[in-house]
Design goal:
single chain; 205 residues; mainly alpha; 3-stranded antiparallel β-sheet; 7 helices; elongated
């Protein structure tokens, strides 16, 4: 996957985020996450070194309030931003493209998990049919038939439980990097609706 920001673009965008007033580092991380609709949230290790560099260059000043540090544009920082307005527009366009790309990647990851579940369920069904053909027809209601049906049902339930756990883990990992967005939630709902429809079609046959 290509980098979210081109070289130097994050540095410029941090200046833009500070244009309307002082912010703490966490505020900047949250603002970036919001701008990306939650599909990307930079780590503290990404943001704070760049803020320190901007301070060294005299483009940003800091003010310590207890254990928190706020960052503000200096006059030099405002001049830098004013001189690079056209470049900033390009950064905004790149961010919009990154949001679409990251959202597509998230949908593909979830879709891949859905497809894997569908393939495993289909494989289990085929295996059951092959076993029945190999061993001969077993009359429904017999102990052998019931045992096989129970085993297959348990296997299907295990697949679904494992898939549910994996999805929950993905959601929790996403939350650890920023709040889940409405766009992501709607995309997840659409993917699960398709999976539900596929499952109904599978068991209808």
């Amino acid at each position: 996957m290509p980098p979210v920001f081109a070289h130097g673009a994050l540095r410029l965008y941090l200046l833009a985020l500070l244009e309307d007033g002082a912010k703490h580092g966490y505020d900047l991380i949250k603002a970036l996450s919001d701008r990306f609709n939650g599909t990307y949230s930079p780590s503290a290790g990404t943001i704070y070194p760049r803020l320190a560099k901007l301070e060294e260059e005299g483009l940003v000043s800091t003010q310590v309030d207890g254990r928190r540090t706020s960052y503000s544009l200096t006059d030099a920082g405002r001049r830098e931003l004013a001189n690079r307005r056209e470049e900033l527009s390009g950064v905004e366009n790149d961010i919009s493209a990154s949001v679409r790309r990251l959202a597509d990647t998230l949908r593909e990851d979830i879709g891949s998990n859905i497809r894997s579940l569908r393939e495993e369920l289909t494989s289990t069904t085929r295996q059951a049919r092959a076993e029945a053909a190999h061993h001969g027809y077993v009359k429904p209601g017999t102990s052998a038939s019931q045992a096989r049906a129970t085993a297959l049902s348990q296997a299907a339930e295990q697949l679904i439980t494992g898939f549910r756990s994996e999805l929950l883990m993905l959601v929790r990992l996403r939350k650890a990097h920023g709040e889940l967005t409405e766009t992501e939630l709607e995309s997840l709902r659409m993917i699960l609706d398709r999976a539900r429809a596929d499952a109904k079609e599978l068991f209808r046959n």
